[in-house]
Design a protein that fits this description.
The chain is α+β, with helices and mostly antiparallel strands. About 35% of the residues lie in helices and about 20% in strands. It has 4 domains: about 190 residues, Histidine kinase-like ATPase, C-terminal domain (Heat Shock Protein 90, 2-Layer Sandwich), CATH 3.30.565; about 120 residues, Ribosomal Protein S5, domain 2, CATH 3.30.230.10; about 140 residues, formyl-coa transferase, domain 3 (2-Layer Sandwich), CATH 3.30.1540.20; about 90 residues, Ribosomal Protein S8, Chain: A, domain 1 (2-Layer Sandwich). Helix 1 crosses helix 4, helix 9 runs parallel beside helix 10 and helix 14 crosses helix 18. The structure holds adenosine-5'-diphosphate and magnesium ion.
Length: about 600
């Protein structure tokens, strides 16, 4: 029979250290949090060999009295809470009273401090959890914690240390997070004899972003500020011209604490839907402030994750305020000439250049044809969407030479502005305007226009659909058949009427006029594919939106289609129809603007 034993303090501390101290950056985070909790206005971090050799954090905070030093390094000893109720009114970053004890257990730690009203300071050394006697020490007001040889007595952990460069990357990130959470505090980070960051106090979060990430990011920040029943959300999100391939540039703070929250990340993604390419993530620096009683931070030892009492409300507030802001913001892709910051160049170039072949491939995939259809079909397709949008009975425009990019009847007269425009490489339209010049992705713009038209029609319930004299049977896979039949009502709103026909066959009795150039079976298959792609239980609104994107993309002129000058002119004349004509529904920019000033500067004419 196994014997049950009480574990020693040392083992308990090692277990706690296992949770809290994953790597040197964790130590930096904990020590910085203590400094901030102590009210420091300046914190200096010195690191050697990526933190494996030394981490020293010095602050000018309230300090610790000499007779409290040993308590500070004991486990479950804290000045931040007293009883269990305090757990629901936490206003400090720490409260578990574990960090110093854990770190002291697995390193050689020196805690040196002098409190505000003390004549002199004192220091305490702890080696692998064993405390030496307290000694007097000459030191300024505040606290300094020195951690040497982290993991020296936990060989397994020590083995997991990465190169000093990698560990330094994590440390820099930890410092950045706390610096973004506390712009009014001065932070300095030194590695060896190199000053990595010197961040003087700033009034505005934007200025801190500028120092940490550079002006190109700071320049494209859109301010957010919303206050709703005790919940305040403020800070910045980046214009969609700046994005990342992952969500690591999403800085969310809850009452000054950096957090990761999947639901809020999702809200962010939703707000940028249609503004960013698939696989791109928005950048944000957002502070959430709410009464501590509305959130539980005691969920995770590192407090990276928290639990909101009413997560739904916060989700809606975030999504709502971003959407409102975007509606009133000009999100044009500007300054494509600007050289991307070194190091991220691949990334930035890829995003500011419309990914043409990708777009074409995608369109072809949706067509379900290897070559996107034969020449004649392509030609007709180009004429088609506009013909079908004629709500009066003027009949379709028939010859290819005529203006085919006609707006939706007389209701929306196209303004007769004269553009100097040129189609190049059967892909882009180059247009002179007052500001300078614009390069437009013809497919992306047309797709956006069609999408807006389609949305308007779907929302107002007046979408034209083409009724078939003889309903057409379409054979699908069993999953596809199930998917389309489950969403019959939704597809009906898009002008696609379906009937089950037994087995895997579905009868199409009507389908969107906009897609009259594609066969009903082809349209249905593409829609089924899209539905399957959505996975389980998409929101009907999102699904409808995705299907509209798909239809618009399918119906739009292709990248590579040759246009007559009249077609070009007509397409441009319809730009005003697209609410946000600077981005196609997939979030690619539809237009890049090169201002005359930029051109002059590039040619060194200033
Ligand atoms: P916690 O921060 O969860 O209370 P720690 O182990 O990190 O636990 O710290 C224990 C205690 O030591 C703190 O509650 C605080 O009173 C004191 N302390 C730690 N670091 C500092 C500091 N830099 N300045 C002042 N007091 C500190
Ligand atoms: Mg702490």
């Amino acid at each position: 029979m196994p014997t049950i034993r009480q574990l020693s303090t040392s083992v308990i501390n090692k277990i706690a250290a296992g949770e809290v101290v994953e790597r040197p950056a964790s130590v930096v985070k904990e020590l910085l949090e203590n400094a901030l909790d102590a009210g420091a206005t300046r914190v200096d971090v010195t690191v050697e060999k990526g933190g494996a050799e030394l981490i020293r954090v010095t602050d000018n905070g309230c300090g610790i009295a000499a007779d409290q030093l040993s308590l500070a390094v004991s486990s479950h000893a804290t000045s931040k809470i007293v009883d269990a109720d305090d757990l629901f009114r936490i206003e400090t970053l720490g409260f578990r009273g574990e960090a110093l004890a854990s770190i002291a257990e697995i390193s050689r730690l020196v805690l040196r401090s002098r409190c505000a009203d003390c004549e002199s300071g004192a220091e305490l050394e702890v080696v692998g959890g064993r405390a030496e006697p307290i000694r007097p020490a000459g030191c300024p007001h505040g606290t300094s914690v020195e951690v040497r040889q982290l993991f020296y007595n936990t060989p397994v952990r020590h083995k997991f240390l990465r190169t000093s460069q990698t560990e330094m990357g994590h440390i820099t990130e930890a410092v950045s997070r706390l610096a973004l959470g506390n712009p009014k505090v001065h932070f300095a980070l030194t590695h060896g004899n190199r000053l990595v960051h010197d961040l003087p106090p700033v009034e505005n979060l934007r200025d801190r972003v500028a120092v940490l990430f550079g002006e190109p990011i700071a320049d494209c920040l859109i301010p957010i500020d919303s206050d709703h029943e005790e919940i305040r959300l403020h800070g910045f999100v980046a214009n969609p011209t700046q994005s990342r391939g992952n969500n690591r540039m999403q800085y969310l703070f809850l009452n000054g604490r950096y957090i990761r929250d999947r639901s809020l990340q999702h809200a962010l993604g939703e707000a940028y839907r249609g503004l960013l390419l698939t696989g791109r993530y928005p950048i944000c620096f957002l502070h959430l402030e709410l009464p501590p009683s509305l959130v539980d931070v005691n969920v995770h030892p590192t407090k990276l994750e928290v639990r909101f009492q009413d997560g739904g409300r916060i989700y809606s507030q975030l999504l709502g305020s971003l959407r409102t802001t975007f509606l009133t913001t000009d999100l044009v892709a500007r300054g494509a000439i600007a050289h991307p910051a070194a190091g991220d160049s691949q990334d930035e170039v890829a995003q500011s250049t419309p990914a043409s072949s990708e777009l074409f491939d995608w369109a072809k995939r949706q067509l379900g044809q290897p070559d996107g259809g034969n020449a004649q079909a392509t030609d007709e397709l180009r004429l088609h969407p506009f013909q079908q949008f004629d709500s009066d009975d003027r009949g379709p425009t028939s010859s290819a030479g005529e203006t085919v990019f006609r707006a939706d009847g007389p209701a929306v007269p196209a303004p007769h502005t004269s553009y100097r425009a040129l189609q190049i490489h059967n892909r882009y339209l180059v247009v002179e305007n007052e500001e300078g010049l614009e390069v437009i992705d013809q497919h992306a713009l047309h797709e956006r226009i069609l999408y807006e038209l389609l949305r308007e029609k779907v929302l107002s319930g007046v979408l034209e659909s083409q009724r078939l004299l003889v309903p057409e049977p379409v054979d699908l896979s069993s999953q596809e058949a199930a998917a389309v039949l489950e969403n019959r009502e939704l597809l009906g709103r898009l002008g696609l009427e379906l009937e089950p026909f037994g087995g895997e066959t579905v009868l199409v009795s009507a389908y969107p006029a906009m897609l009259a150039n594609f066969s009903p079976s082809e349209v249905l298959r593409s829609l089924a594919e899209q539905l399957e792609h959505e996975g389980k239980q998409p929101e009907p609104r999102d699904l409808l939106d995705d299907l509209m994107h798909m239809i618009a993309c399918k119906a739009a002129i292709k990248f590579g289609d040759r246009l007559t000058p009249e077609e070009v002119e007509s397409l441009l004349a319809q730009r005003h129809l697209a609410q946000d004509h600077h981005h196609c529904p997939h979030g690619r920019p539809t237009a890049l603007v090169f201002t005359r000033d930029q051109l002059d500067r590039q040619f060194k004419r200033v």
